[in-house]
Amino acid sequence: MHDEYDLGSDTSLLLVDDDEPFLRRLAKAMEKRGFAVETAGTVVAGKAIATARPPAYAVIDLRLEDGNGLDVVEVLRERRGDARIVVLTGYGAIATAVAAVKIGATDYLSKPADANDIIQALLANAGDLPPPPENPMSADRVRWEHIQRVYELCDRNVSETARRLNMHRRTLQRILAKRSPR
Length: 182
Hints:
Keywords: Activator, DNA-binding, Phosphoprotein, Transcription, Transcription regulation, Two-component regulatory system
GO molecular function, one term: DNA binding
Domain Response regulatory: 12-126
Protein name: Photosynthetic apparatus regulatory protein RegA
CATH class of the largest domain: Alpha Beta
Low-confidence stretches: none
InterPro entries: ActR_PrrA_rreg, Bact_response_regulator, CheY-like_superfamily, Sig_transdc_resp-reg_receiver
Number of domains: 2
Oligomer: single chain
């Protein structure tokens, strides 16, 4: 059954993600591992569940269609100080991960994360360092992700992005025109 994990007596788990197929798969996988799962597809629904029935565990996507998953983290942290919260980010964004941990997330993971990664993060003891990832992003990919993020934050303005990254505009245009590295 699920004796390989020590979930404690309260196995309530809130999953908040607007990627419906991912949410369904993850909910099934976590139920198989002994969690009592509740799901939400929006910040509003996540906050409602966190307020009414604050779970022992939560996995919350950072970017949701109706806002920021950190809003759900804050509500849950207020309602239940001992909740173990893992934030998922599709952007490997260091700044947002730091913000998530500051307001009370236990850990954060970059998508795509599978159920085993998530359980390890949820059940890790404070101070335990997670094992190194099996297939981490290459340095080229990390650089590309960073450039994409700054580009998005500058409302896709190439000149402004180039200025902020301290690079030549044409160099940036060439990078943006290429596919993402592996």
